[in-house]
Design a protein that fits this description.
57% of the residues lie in helices and 10% in strands. By secondary structure, the protein is mainly α. It has a domain of 102 residues: Ribosomal Protein S7 (Orthogonal Bundle), CATH 1.10.455.10. A two-stranded antiparallel ribbon has the order 1-2. α2 packs across α3, α4 crosses α5 and α4 crosses α6. The longest helix is centred in the first third of the chain and has 19 residues. It is found in: Plastid, Chloroplast. InterPro entries: Ribosomal_uS7, Ribosomal_uS7_bac/org-type, Ribosomal_uS7_CS, Ribosomal_uS7_dom, Ribosomal_uS7_dom_sf.
Length: 155
Amino acid sequence: MSRRGTAEEKTAKSDPIYRNRLVNMLVNRILKHGKKSLAYKIIYQTVKKIQQKTEKNPLSVLCQAICGVTPNISVKARRVSGSTHQVPIEIGSTQGKALAIRWLLRASLKRPGQNMALKLSSELVDAAKGSGDAIRKKEETHRMAESNRAFAHFR
């Protein structure tokens, strides 16, 4: 048993303009080499592009995209008696959102073109509609967990 107290769970701060925690999580994942102002600029341009494309509230599109990509279950490699099994594990909401944001950013980086704001807005709109590379990654993860359901007792 640990002698230290339990670690307090940190709450994500909200961004200055939209007062939204998801936007701040997205900014912190885009962040490279400490250039936070550039990350904010990319996100705010993305939000404007979403507004122009869908003519809906861009924050609701963003939340819808992240909720659509968030997985409930994933697989983890577990070594049992000499062989490695892919064991399905349920994911909490915070970790699921972090995975979803990571998948969205990776899928948008793979898109052709050089403007990150345009690529990210396209990927977010596609994810909100239920298509795109990030949605495909979520379905692939769920399929892996479903096929390895027999090893769930190794949890």
